[in-house]
């Protein structure tokens, strides 16, 4: 019985990890395809959200964070990338993902990201994103 | 009664925020003073810990994360800095802090950091650290 319960817990944990990983990938898919509405919808719209774009200072609150993504997706510099090295952790109603964004194109660089998610019912919403360029040197 | 309960909740919340802010500042104080034992003790010693130093890829697990801090503190490049722009969020047994590390000295730069903490009884332990240089340009 104990081991069956253990297996159930492990299965539930894996379902959660898969759901967070899917939310994380979907976020990047929507960035890549320039789907601003979906990118904005991926975030929790609250005062507590925070975002550090590569080379930027942190910005806080939905107005600023949402505005930054709108500016990026409405520019001519929508990034294309491959995601590698994903790792998901879940604890309770929070989850965090580390992932490498391998940018394609002329300035091919790798960006290391830490993304924080909060559970909203069956949906995981992004509440923090910190991304930084990995030095090539 | 309702408003008194609301005040109690708000007070408890502020106590939690203060405890996380103190843990975060103590971590940096110990980095600055080169107290390796205290820096290592500030972290949860587990497989789930993750750390992205400025310009680095993410490293995972206590062996690697702890080893990276040992290497930094045993080098001749222990950073000195002023902390500004701190902001703490707490949800349940997890908390996260964004803060600017304003490095002093010849190469004065600002580093933007996102630090994730988990509650261990009365103590908040670091479980993730992502730091990146803010572009001066």
Brief sketch in words of this structure:
The structure is a homodimer of 137-residue chains. Chain A is built from three helices and six strands, in the order ααββαββββ.
Explained architecture:
The structure is a homodimer. Helices cover about 35% and strands about 35% of the residues of chain A. The first copy, chain A, has 3 helices and 6 strands. In chain A, strands 2-1-6-5-4-3 form a 6-stranded mixed beta sheet, covered by helices on one side. Chain A starts with a helix and ends with a strand. The model of chain A has no long low-confidence stretch (mean pLDDT about 95). The interface of A and B includes residues 48, 93, 94, 114 and 130 of A.
**Secondary-structure element order of chain A, as H and E?**
HHEEHEEEE
Category by helix and strand content of chain A:
alpha+beta
What is the helix tally of chain A? 3
**Using CB atoms under 8 Å apart, which protein chain pair has the greatest interface?**
A-B, 31 and 31 residues
Average pLDDT across residues of chain A? 93
Write the layout of secondary structure elements.
The structure is a homodimer of 137-residue chains.
Chain A: H1 2-32, H2 36-41, E1 50-52, E2 59-60, H3 62-74, E3 81-91, E4 94-103, E5 110-120, E6 123-133
